Amino acid sequence: MSGPLGFFIRRGSVIFSWLLVYPSEEFEEHAEKVKKLPENTTNENKLILYGLFKQATVGPVNTSRPGIFNMRDRAKWDAWKAVEVKSKDEAMSDYITKVKQLLEEAAAAASA
């Protein structure tokens, strides 16, 4: 092991190296990339991202469910509650995957 940034494996006379990207670093990168999503991103996808982001950064829901007349905050709370069984690392990984998926879909739609 060469320290926190990578490791080396010797195979014959060739040394292979892989850079380990810590989930939190990649998560932060994708939290910035999410700002590049198109405005027509569905509310369903925005809520999925919101729930995963909150679970990854805060952990399980720590507030009361908003009242029925506060539909926007209630939907956000419900999205967070739906993923509270995930660990922070799982939520980060799922968030990264979802952002990648949405960015790929947006790129495909733009080039079509």
From TrEMBL:
Cross-referenced Pfam families: ACBP
Gene3D superfamilies assigned: 1.20.80.10
Gene Ontology biological process terms, A to Z: fatty acid metabolic process
InterPro entries tied to this protein: Acyl-CoA-binding_prot_CS, Acyl-CoA-binding_protein, Acyl-CoA-binding_sf, FERM/acyl-CoA-bd_prot_sf
Molecular function terms from GO: fatty-acyl-CoA binding
Keywords: Lipid-binding
Transmembrane segments annotated in the record for this chain: none
Domain ACB positions: 23-108
Entry keyword annotation includes Cell cycle: no
Assigned protein family: Belongs to the ACBP family.
Protein name: ACB domain-containing protein
Record organism: Salix udensis
